[in-house]
């Protein structure tokens, strides 16, 4: 279990380094072109997801996401103590990843995001659909092509950055951690709660709708 928790914490930290770091670099190089910044952000995140799922998946299952851990708990595939431990290290790792990215780009370590546009019914619906899509990709991939899950998740998230209005957070740990980064990838702390509520709601919707479709 210690190895699994270390893998989940490390993977979550590396994911946030990619999310925040690519946002900072993209914004710096794009000189105000938000589309270019978002493209850099999406590609870097997708690449990192492929790497950490491939490398750490055999150790912990490569959740890196409290919503994913909750989904496995609902399916009876992990225990409650294991789920609680996963969630704790995922959140801790995510915050450490944000702070590491800030340090790497010589920014103040401790920040609060002032990005104000991530709220409202359209954004909340976007997070439900983004998280539902992630559940579909993960559990559909595990049923049909387990070896392809790393690339499936990486491709899905890279695409979902572009076809969702919220840019597909789909991860409570990522959402919480992005609240402490006043950079391109940040989210205003006051808007975090509804994002997380929608993500968790999507897990229960997925549990009710995808199991009859995907399970034998």
UniProtKB/TrEMBL annotation:
Keywords: Membrane, Transmembrane, Transmembrane helix, Transport
GO CC annotations on file: membrane
Source organism of this protein record: Sulfitobacter albidus
Membrane topology: Multi-pass membrane protein
Regions that span the bilayer: 42-62, 83-102, 122-142, 149-170, 190-210
Protein name: Aquaporin family protein
Principal place of residence: membrane
Family: Belongs to the MIP/aquaporin (TC 1.A.8) family.
Pfam name, any one: MIP
InterPro entries for the chain: Aquaporin-like (IPR023271), Aquaporin_transptr (IPR034294), MIP (IPR000425), MIP_CS (IPR022357)
Compartments, as annotated in UniProt: Membrane
The keyword Thylakoid is assigned to this record: no
GO MF annotation list: channel activity
């Amino acid at each position: 279990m210690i190895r699994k928790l270390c893998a989940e914490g490390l993977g979550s930290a590396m994911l946030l380094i990619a999310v925040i770091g690519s946002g900072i670099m993209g914004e710096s190089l794009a000189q105000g072109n938000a589309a270019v910044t978002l493209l850099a952000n999406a590609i870097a995140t997708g690449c990192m997801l492929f790497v950490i799922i491939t490398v750490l998946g055999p150790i912990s299952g490569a959740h890196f996401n409290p919503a994913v851990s909750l989904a496995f708990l609902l399916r009876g595939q992990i225990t409650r103590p294991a789920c609680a431990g996963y969630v704790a290290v995922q959140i801790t790792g995510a915050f450490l990843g944000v702070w590491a990215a800030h340090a790497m780009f010589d920014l103040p370590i401790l920040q609060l995001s002032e990005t104000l546009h991530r709220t409202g019914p359209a954004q909340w619906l976007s997070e439900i659909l983004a998280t539902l899509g992630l559940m579909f990709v993960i559990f559909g991939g595990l049923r049909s092509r387990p070896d392809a899950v790393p690339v499936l998740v990486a491709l899905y998230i890279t695409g979902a950055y572009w076809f969702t209005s919220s840019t597909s957070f789909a991860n409570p740990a990522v959402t919480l951690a992005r609240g402490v980064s006043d950079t391109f990838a940040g989210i205003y702390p006051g808007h975090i709660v509804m994002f997380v509520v929608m993500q968790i709601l999507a897990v229960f919707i997925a549990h009710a709708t995808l199991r009859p479709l995907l399970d034998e």
